[in-house]
Amino acid sequence: MTATSTLATQRASIREVGLRDGLQSLASIVSTADKCAWIDAAYDAGMREMEVGSMVPAHLLPQLADTEAVLAHACSKPGLLASVLVPNLKGAERALAAGAQSMVVPLSASYAHSLANLRKTPDDVVAEVARIRAVRDAAGSHAQIEGGVGTAFGCTLQGDVAESEVLRLMQALLDAGADHVSLADTVGYADPDSVRRLFEKARRLVDGRLRTAHFHDTRGMGLANAYAAWQTGITHFDACLGGIGGCPHAPGASGNVTTEDLAYMLQRMGVATGLDVPALLQLRQRMHAWLPNEKLHGSLWQAGVIAAPQACAAICT
Ligand SMILES: CC(C)(COP(=O)([O-])OP(=O)([O-])OC[C@H]1O[C@@H](n2cnc3c(N)ncnc32)[C@H](O)[C@@H]1OP(=O)([O-])[O-])[C@@H](O)C(=O)NCCC(=O)NCCSC(=O)C[C@@](C)(O)CC(=O)[O-]
């Protein structure tokens, strides 16, 4: 898809991943009731895709130990696509039993990060996706399987990651049974040029089966990278309210691109997201009470939204 035809689409979807990527690296533990309130408020603000936790061993990420309960609440929301991260077959079995509508299987294109994060090589993760697909199909479930290719632009443990390796693994995930794939910049190694280059190549290879772009704002390029991905035809983005997030097994990892800033950027570009940006800002404000010891990030909350032209005209006359 060319930039011109992409811009004609003028619709994009943001998946709030704060309850998973956002919380996984924070020491604070948010109560299940507060997580459900977070889901309610995001849903009321128009959010229709949320990643609400991880099916990892509770002792590894106690922050996400209540994922089953949080997922059950998310699944009660009509029209909400509720996903969870699953690191292995056991996690997928838990996700299927809990009624997940979408499972994100992370695969690190960086060999070193793959071992640190999942104790598996990237190709072992591909083989695990084949097992997850077999179990899902045998269960008669329609839960989507997303292969999330992380460290796609490099990482602190290994340095460079070759584009050819990222593309190979992306294709291997689809061949193994993933329904679609996403590309992630785990530690802020991407820039708009490298994003455009890799996403264009990836889209040439698998077209619409490359669904989502997942950026961290580690070096201040999160929004610029999202814009570059949008220009290649990507219309699904991951983001975290308050810009929290980061992989605990990736040294130097920091927060995701900020949901409210990304939603506002798209809105200013005339792209419909279905999101109520002032409502997102109110939700961000509530997060201070849920995460009193954590720093929230982003820009829009400081300056506020610029009033729509009609409202401005009314005020100015
Ligand atoms: C994959 C493992 C589990 C391997 O960990 P392991 O120790 O190799 O696991 P194992 O298979 O040897 O099993 C050890 C024990 O854990 C149990 N177990 C095993 N699996 C599960 C499970 N799913 N749920 C519950 N329990 C489980 C298993 O049953 C066994 O129990 P025991 O017999 O000793 O009583 C571990 O390495 C792991 O959980 N890693 C995940 C780390 C993580 O969450 N990282 C962050 C997410 S990835 C990320 O942030 C990047 C991303 C996606 O956001 C993209 C980006 O930003 O770029």
TrEMBL record:
This is Hydroxymethylglutaryl-CoA lyase. It comes from the Bacteria. It comes from Comamonas sediminis. Belongs to the alpha-IPM synthase/homocitrate synthase family. CDD domains: DRE_TIM_HMGL (cd07938). PROSITE patterns: AIPM_HOMOCIT_SYNTH_1 (PS00815), PYR_CT (PS50991). Residues 12-281 form the Pyruvate carboxyltransferase domain. Keywords: Lyase, Metal-binding, Transferase.
